[in-house]
């Protein structure tokens, strides 16, 4: 943990009456806290990758291809939790934009690897830095406790995934975004 003391809970609460009441009522609500953090991160991420073909999904493909994380399109679909058919169209769009290319898999000529172009690698590095900045803004309240928080969060995420494995990350994010849209329409 940190050498410095964390701010007292009252220091982190909003100063306005309604915000202070909401924060007090929801201080032990795990779902509310996760939702607020996720909503803020998704808004920032959407702004950062909205011009990439396919938005966040397209960025994930470019990121995977830039790091050579998948041996072929099938492996990439499984890795990213994107339906293979959807991935094919997404790669078509990214290829048309000059961000990735399909190359024969040296291990299996029937299979294709998705490889980032120089433009794709540059986009990934640029957006990776912007996403890290958005993350840093959200977590800035933690100060030197941020690395410990991230490590604990990773442990919880791994445990939660073991309890209920996520087979399609895109679907999970889309469902959360749909819930947020429905919530906004009600208010």
Structure commentary:
This protein is 67% helix and 8% strand. The longest helix has 22 residues. Helix 4 packs across helix 7. By secondary structure, the chain is mostly helical. The chain has a two-stranded antiparallel ribbon with strand order 1-2.
Q: Can you describe this structure in just a few lines?
A:
Helix content is 67%, strand content 8%. It has nine helices and two strands, in the order H-H-H-H-H-H-E-E-H-H-H.
Q: What order do the helices and strands come in, and which of them pair?
A:
Elements: H1 9-12, H2 17-26, H3 30-49, H4 55-66, H5 73-80, H6 84-96, E1 100-105, E2 108-116, H7 118-139, H8 146-163, H9 169-186
Antiparallel strand pairs: 1-2
Domain HTH marR-type: 27-164
Organism: Plantactinospora endophytica
Keywords: DNA-binding, Transcription, Transcription regulation
Question: Mind describing the biggest β-sheet?
Answer: 2 strands, antiparallel
CATH superfamily: Winged helix-like DNA-binding domain superfamily/Winged helix DNA-binding domain
| CATH class category label | Mainly Alpha
Number of helices in the DSSP assignment: 9
Cα(first) to Cα(last) distance is 40 Å
Oligomer: single chain
SSE ordering:
HHHHHHEEHHH
Biggest β-sheet: strands ordered side by side in the sheet: 1-2
3D shape: elongated
Q: Which blocks of ≥5 consecutive residues have pLDDT under 50?
A: 1-13
Strand content: 5-15%
* DSSP summary, beta strand count: 2
Average predicted confidence as pLDDT: 83
CA-based gyration radius: 20 Å
CATH architectural label: Orthogonal Bundle
State the domain count: 1
Helical percent range? 55-70%
And the CATH topology? Arc Repressor Mutant, subunit A
Protein name: HTH marR-type domain-containing protein
Keywords: DNA-binding, Transcription, Transcription regulation
Pfam families: MarR
Organism: Plantactinospora endophytica
């Amino acid at each position: 943990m940190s050498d410095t003391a964390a701010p007292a809970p009252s220091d982190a609460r909003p100063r306005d009456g309604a915000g202070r009441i909401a924060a007090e009522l929801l201080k032990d609500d795990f779902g509310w806290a996760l939702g607020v953090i996720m909503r803020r991160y998704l808004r920032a991420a959407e702004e950062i990758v909205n011009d990439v073909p396919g938005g966040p999904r397209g960025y994930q493909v470019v990121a995977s291809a830039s790091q050579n994380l998948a041996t072929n399109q099938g492996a990439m679909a499984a890795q990213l939790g994107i339906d293979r058919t959807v991935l094919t169209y997404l790669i078509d769009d990214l290829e048309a934009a000059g961000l990735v290319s399909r190359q024969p898999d040296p291990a299996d000529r029937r299979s294709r690897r998705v490889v980032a172009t120089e433009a794709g690698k540059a986009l990934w590095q640029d957006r990776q830095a912007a996403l890290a900045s958005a993350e840093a803004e959200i977590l800035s309240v933690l100060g030197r406790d941020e690395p410990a928080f991230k490590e604990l969060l990773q442990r919880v995420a791994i445990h939660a995934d073991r309890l209920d494995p996520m087979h399609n990350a895109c679907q999970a994010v889309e469902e959360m975004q749909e819930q947020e849209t429905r919530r906004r329409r009600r208010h």
